[in-house]
Design brief:
This protein is an alpha/beta fold and 424 residues long. It folds into 2 domains: 331 residues, Collagenase (Catalytic Domain), CATH 3.40.390.10; 68 residues, Immunoglobulin-like, CATH 2.60.40.10. It contains 8 helices and 15 strands. Bound molecules: zinc ion. Zinc ion binds next to helix 7.
């Protein structure tokens, strides 16, 4: 946040730092006020996070630490050096829960959503010229990409999509969607997969998730209505631009709404020093400048992904928002980076064989072997041969089970694959 209202925040901060219990009460109070003020809102993240904080003491205490991290990030005590952030690809599993055939969304709709995520997190959106020029330079490639998981929790190949017919309405609004025994679908291991449930939620809610902390609630993941998911199939205007998911992914990676934790004031921080103070959410497509706080002559950044603009008018994560998401990926959600759930692109592009998962924990699988038996050689990263064995199309596993963590080179014929071995 910028502007003179910063002074007020600096007065509030020592109170938060000194009295943890008071601070906790204020967090709950702020969340509660959001609920009252909004009533029905297209995004239920604050409401659902509040519920989880009440019922999960581990999540609650780790959220206090997360707020500390946000405050330190806002004040510049902790930061992320951009040069240290490489491009990362995060594994996604989409659980489709459908009551009607229309809700059993086509695979093209799912792919269209992944494409929008990669486009917008990659700063490749063609409509960024609509961002007022004073803020356009704040946009950048986050280095964060998304991919449907290739490998399921048992190590088998997967499309990254599950489907289940259900017999209850608004399943996304209770506790059933994430429990197969109650009609939903169990999450895949939360540290290593972004679980997305596409199902009806009700109450005009389009989607929600849970703010990250070191501990996660049992239902951690993202829930989204099929009508606000992707750009084709069941998606409907004005939510058929895939940006409800971009907004929720922002929350999933730690971002708050641009108006802060409480609406109706110009002093509630979102912890981002490059987003203006904002009184309340903006809906639809506002005209620049729209000024809700007198301290901000350029007005609200209503085209930020973390506001409530229509899909055609939501356009931007700022530099600081991107940095905080990167920080979350190096802390509370680091398991997504070291996930066995996706096949990482090999460094040499002309490989005919596919080896997965990589990183590997236990056994590596090899796809694309010719008929007959092939020999493999396994080397340390310094080139020391440590094992030779045989594989074939019917027995294509290479075991890493007795080996220490580290980087290995696997040679099969003329191909050399770089394998990362991580014991989970
Ligand atoms: Zn939201």
């Amino acid at each position: 946040m910028i502007g003179s209202a910063m002074d007020n925040h600096e007065i509030i901060q020592p109170i938060f730092s000194t009295f943890a219990s008071v601070r906790w009460s204020m967090i709950i109070l702020l969340l509660f006020l959001v609920e009252i003020a909004l009533g029905q809102s297209p995004c239920a993240t604050m409401d659902k996070t509040e519920n989880a904080l009440y019922t999960d003491s581990a999540y609650k205490s780790s959220m206090l630490e997360q707020v500390d991290l946000l405050e330190q990030f806002e004040s510049g005590v902790v930061d992320v050096a951009s040069r240290n952030v490489k491009q990362v690809t995060l594994p996604v599993v989409v659980h489709v829960l459908y009551e009607s055939e229309e809700q059993n969304i086509p695979v093209e709709q799912i792919h269209s959503q992944i494409d929008v995520l990669n486009r917008d997190f990659g700063w490749n959106q063609s409509d960024k010229q609509k961002i007022p020029s004073i803020w356009r330079d704040l946009g950048r490639d986050s280095g964060i990409r998304f991919k449907l998981a290739d490998v399921d929790p048992d190590g088998n190949f997967t499309t990254g999509i599950t489907r289940k017919q259900i017999f209850q309405s608004d399943i996304g609004n209770g506790d059933n969607y994430y429990q197969s025994s109650l009609g939903g679908t169990d999450p895949w291991p939360r540290p290593h997969y972004i679980n997305i449930w596409v199902c009806e939620i009700g109450d005009n809610v389009l989607g929600y998730t849970f703010l990250p902390a070191a501990s996660f609630p049992v239902n951690d993941g993202i829930v989204i209505d099929p009508r606000a998911f992707g750009t084709t199939g069941a998606a409907v205007e004005p939510y058929n631009g895939g940006r409800t998911m971009v907004h929720e992914m922002g929350h999933y990676l730690g971002l708050r709404h641009t108006w802060g934790m409480e609406e109706g004031e110009c002093t509630n921080t979102d912890y981002m020093s490059d987003t203006p103070w904002q009184r309340e959410p903006n809906f639809g497509c506002s005209r620049f400048p729209y000024v809700s706080c007198a301290s901000e002559p350029d007005g609200d950044m209503f085209m930020n992904f973390m506001d409530y603009a229509d899909d055609t008018c939501a356009l931007l994560f700022t530099k600081r928002q991107v940095k905080f998401m990167q920080l979350v990926l190096q802390t509370s959600r680091v398991g997504l980076i070291h996930s066995p759930a996706i096949t990482h692109t090999d460094e040499v592009d002309n490989h005919k064989l596919r080896v997965y998962p990589n990183p590997v924990d236990g056994r590596l699988l090899v796809d694309g072997l010719q008929n007959g038996i092939s020999q493999y050689d396994l080397f340390t990263d310094t080139g020391l041969l440590i094992r030779t064995g045989n594989i074939s199309a019917s027995n294509s596993q290479v075991s890493f089970e007795s080996l220490p963590n580290g980087i290995y080179l696997l040679q099969i014929g003329s191909e050399i694959h770089r394998i990362v071995h991580v014991i989970q």
